[in-house]
Predict the structure of UDP-N-acetylenolpyruvoylglucosamine reductase.
Amino acid sequence: MFVINDRHTYEQLAAITSPENVLMDEELYRHTYTQLGGRADFYVTPETYEQVQAIVKLALNEAIPFTMLGNGSNLIIKDGGIRGIILNLGRLAAIHKDGMHIVAQSGARIIDVSQFALSHTLTGLEFACGIPGSVGGALFMNAGAYHGEIKDVLKSAVVVDREGNLLVLDAADLDLAYRSSNIPANGYIVLEATFVMQAGEYPAIKTVMDDLTHRRESKQPLEYPSCGSVFKRPPGYFAGKLIQDSHLQGRQIGGAQVSLKHAGFIINRNGASATEYIDLIHSVQATVKQTFDVTLEREVKIIGEDPLT
């Protein structure tokens, strides 16, 4: 049975990467956009693909719970934290151009990949200029905005499977659909993505990106911590409009509030706990269901353990 803060586990992880890349009892609110979440037993930031493989194999052989954490932008971590190993690939963030392709490591921000495309006058990733997640997280949920999504431009991905094997997969192998993929079901860890781009003109690409950035900044409550859009778009509806028409804007539980600026966002307005944030999500879902008989499905992922009572 796994023991919290086991020294032997720490030494094994430190030997794989380095002591500087292994934190014990780390506060996870430091690593999420919502600024919510309890502690991780081990927070590990490997620097090579081989280290990722070795950590996966260690977790498998030692039966240690194992969780991937990307940029923390579309995620709520419960107040009880997460047991075992949290793996963050933020140190794997290189981006380079290969002909008409852009190759980006998992820890790179998809916003930065979009800016890299602009700097090389490549078009196709303009829609991603305001998506705050990592490349790995963007593939995980087939992130999208403004009528574009990852599946439109993804060529292939390098992943590690549950056994620590390195695989190169075509985009079609990932079953990318609206805000979903088979990455979580298969236990894949994305290490790298290759995007197919088209030649463009710098002024035209920048004009589109500037317009999308303005629209995002003027409509979204970026001045507060949040997880972005909380709910998927229900067929035939807009989640934000349903929430607004249910008179839920401004509803607050503890420090969590339905944004007055954009009803599809729930903000951490004043030191919210994860429990308060999640309770508000459930309250919104129940009210919209009662008012319009529409089920709002979460886009945001909730992980971790409830706090001890």
